[in-house]
Predict the 3D structure of the following.
Amino acid sequence: MGPLNRHMAQSGAKWQSDEGGPQGSPAPVFIGESRHPVDPKNRVFLPKRFQAGLPLDDEGNRAGVLMRGLDGCIFLFTKEGHRKATSMVNMEAFASREQRSRQRALLRSGHEFTLDASGRLLLPAPLIKLAGIERDVVQVGVGGRVEIWSADRWDAMEAETEAAFEELENHITGKSGGQGG
């Protein structure tokens, strides 16, 4: 089955990577998309399928790391996933001043979190500002991380992506943009 194994959990199918997480357990592979409102206290519900991929901390709470993402979103990682994702940046930072500046910009935004008893995630104000979040967010599983997007940014990006797919389809099939099939 390649680098992915399918493991059954009580809540249904759960995909995991063979690369390994804490104590040699398989690392979670986050998939799917959800849209949720952010409450007035900057909390948002994290879907159960994403919660299941977060390990328990010493107090028995689901925990991980949030940080500034690329393209205008917030990244959510397990702590082990965050360590792996940032290890490359840590080594490259010694190469040049520019790379050290990039490292600072990326890593200074990190925030460890624990979910509350209702499965809600507190989004830090600096990350909300960077991601342009006002009310609703879209949470997208992207393998080893979850991306949290402003719903407006996500919708705009999806519209661009759909237009690009239509253009590609027209190119492949030999149709021009205004003609039907």
About this structure: Residues 1-22 have pLDDT under 50 and may be disordered. Residues 151-173 form the longest helix (23 residues).
